[in-house]
Amino acid sequence: MKIDRLVSIIMILLDKKRIGAQELADMFEVSPRTIYRDIDSINMAGIPIRATSGVGGGFEIMQKYKVDHKVFSTADLSAILMGLSSVSNMIRGDELVNALAKVKSFIPVDKAKDIELKTNQIYIDLSPWLGNRDIQAYLEIIKTALQESKLLSFDYADRYGNKTQRVAEPYQLVLKGSHWYWQGYCRKRNDFRLFKLSRTSNLQIQIEGFTPRDYQKPQLDFTDILATIQTKIKIRIHKSVMDRVLDYCTYEHFSPDGDEHYIVNFPFIENEYYYNILLSFGDKCECLEPLHIRTEIKHRIHDIALIYER
């Protein structure tokens, strides 16, 4: 059960006079049964919610009831503030400012310092160190288009740099592995596509709106697929690149090789992406086996050397 969903339901009930179970279920993409369990949990926490049946029925907080600040623990409020603050650092908006203000209103005066300390124990900054400075502006554009159901026009570059002009219906913003993506229905491909934000340029909101269609969320977990296509190769690395190699495998894959080096059982797929990963380690990495991958890397290094000999 997610505390952020429970808090959101409370906020909605405080803002709305009455709302139905199915509407809440659609809003949070869960089943009505889950909503009923959430309502029971909120009631058990001391907030009296009344259910009415029939046309126009739904859930509502009993009239004249004021939410007791003691409903949320220090840990609850710290977790909510931490999540809202990290998102608001990257995505601006009045609704996030209002949500932060509402949550802060629940903080008892005698707990303020303790909650501030716990909230600051973990800081999440989603903005990049370097790179595409259009990302934050584009996030704002996509967020507005999502809220208003407006079409987006943009140029999109594939993995080889080939650009095409696109128009798409936006449906979801996704943060995956420190990269932003957005899910949209592409009018050019007549299908749903997951667009990487860093490959998007000239992004603009169109005047034309659209009627949202049924869609499935993009597949983001490839653990099972990777397990069937990845193989382990043996590489020897210098300790200076250890932290970078750890981005792709765990320390259990490492074994010391003298004072300066490690032998690593490295997860690998024979494609451009993984060959480029190995080459990015430069002379601090040597592929030991299998032989055919070692040979392919030698050929690639030779081709790179030829570029600089011209």
Automatic annotation (TrEMBL):
Keywords: Transcription, Transcription regulation. It holds the Pfam family HTH_11. It comes from Petrocella atlantisensis. The keyword Transcription regulation applies. GO terms for molecular function: DNA-binding transcription factor activity. This is YafY family transcriptional regulator. Residues 2-57 form the HTH deoR-type domain. InterPro entries: CBASS_pafABC_assoc_protein, DeoR_HTH, HTH_11, PafC-like, WCX_dom, WH-like_DNA-bd_sf, WH_DNA-bd_sf, WYL_dom.
